[in-house]
Amino acid sequence: QVQLVESGGGLVQAGDSLRLSCAASGRTASGYAMGWFRRSPGKEREFVATISWSGGNTRYGDSVKGRFTISMDNAENTVNLQMNSLKPEDTAVYYCAASRFLAEQWSLYPYWGQGTQVTVSS
């Protein structure tokens, strides 16, 4: 069982930056991939980014590629998401998730945090 807690969300203006963090605890096995997903009202859950536990393998959703960077802090069991050049369409609840595999499908992530709200004004 893995418990995940997101932090770092907030209200910013378009063009600003935010860094989200997700702290993992209760991990019973190594080698997890960590992912970020987001969901806005009336929209389906969207893949944002994922990273291998070692940090050597990353994937990004097309809508955030070049603007967001995912990274691991293994000493703190934490995954970070640096979000630059934020746009109003980035407004969403951002969820951290853990999976055995690198994947873009939310159904392959058995462990989820409660989410953190990111709001980007025009």
Write a concise keyword list for the protein shown above:
0% helix, mainly beta, 122 residues
Order of helices and strands: EEEEEEEEEEE
Supply the helix-strand structural class.
mainly beta
In which range does the helix fraction lie? under 10%
Which percent band covers the strand fraction?
over 45%
Q: How large is the count of helical segments?
A: 0
The shape, in one word, is: globular
> Mean pLDDT across all residues, rounded?
94
Number of strands: 11
The unreliable regions are: none
Radius of gyration over C-alpha positions, nearest whole angstrom: 13 Å
- End-to-end separation: 40 Å
Biggest beta sheet summary: 7 strands, mixed
Strand and helix layout:
Elements: E1 3-7, E2 10-13, E3 18-25, E4 33-39, E5 46-51, E6 58-60, E7 68-73, E8 78-83, E9 92-99, E10 111-112, E11 116-121
Parallel strand pairs: 2-11
Antiparallel strand pairs: 1-3, 3-8, 4-5, 4-9, 5-6, 7-8, 9-10, 9-11
Walk me through the structure:
- This protein is mainly beta and 122 residues long.
- 0% of the residues lie in helices and 50% in strands.
- It has no helices and 11 strands.
- Strands 2, 4, 5, 6, 9, 10 and 11 form a 7-stranded mixed beta sheet that branches. The chain has a 4-stranded antiparallel beta sheet with strand order 1-3-8-7, with no helix packed on it.
- A hairpin with a 4-residue loop joins strand 7 (68-73) and strand 8.
- The chain is globular and about 40 Å long.
- The N and C termini lie far apart (40 Å).
Would you kindly provide a brief summary of this structure?
With 122 residues, the chain is mostly beta strands. It is built from no helices and eleven strands.
